[in-house]
Amino acid sequence: MEFFDVLKSRHSIRAFAPAPVEPEKLQAILNAANGAPSAGNLQSYEIYLAQRPSETRAIAAVAFNQGFVAQAPILLIFCSHAARAVEKYRERGAQLYSLQDATIACAFAMLAATALGLATVWIGAFDPDAVRKLIGAPVGITPVAILPIGYPAEQPELTTRRPLEELVHEMPG
Fold first, then answer.
1. Residue 158 pLDDT more than 90?
2. CA 161 to CA 20: how far, in whole Å?
3. Which helix (H) or strand (E) holds 105?
4. 32 close to 116: Cβ distance less than 8 angstroms
5. pLDDT-derived band of residue 156, with 50, 70 and 90 as boundaries?
6. Distance from chain centroid for Cα 1
7. 161 bridge partner residues
8. Is 43 left (phi over 0), alpha (psi -120 to 50) or beta?
């Protein structure tokens, strides 16, 4: 798929088909996330993979019972890892850059999944402490986003976007 076609094709999907995701597609998605830019190239984030039904159901439960999360055959949980950024960037690295690193890696994974014909939805509504415990992450690793990945079982309606005139602002001259 051409890049701009990928952007147009990406939609938030909340219904997943029971078909498994091929291992080579998962690997391509993980490689895309790994290639995302990061502050100082520190990659101050971690990715946790959940793919057993018991794992996806447990994550869905702490994502405020969003049942569609458990439908996806794969969940990637993107976490900030503040300690990786703090030495070089101090507090700003810990509080902001590690969060940015995790989110851009998630965005790259989302776009890669779309390019491979898969569906995703960004999940930000969850109990981070409960997710951290479920994935076995140590203190200092903070879940930021959950990305369910699978084949779509729905075709969503197109949503409207803000006009650029409302969104883009020029600096005062």
1. no
2. 32
3. helix 98-115
4. no
5. confident
6. 20
7. none
8. left
SS3 assignment, position 124: coil
Cα–Cα distance, 130 to 72 (Å, whole number): 19
- HSE at residue 160, side-chain half, CA atoms within 13 A, is 3
Cα gap 130→83, rounded to integer Å = 21
* Domains of the chain as residue ranges with CATH: 22-153 (3.40.109.10)
Q: List the strands of the sheet with 141-150, edge to edge.
A: 45-50, 74-81, 141-150, 119-120
**Which position has the token pair 């976007």?**
161
Span of 37-46, 70-79, 88-97, 154-163 with lowest mean pLDDT: 154-163
How, if at all, do strands 45-50 and 141-150 pair?
Answer: unpaired
User: Which carries the bigger pLDDT value, residue 89 or residue 157?
Assistant: 89
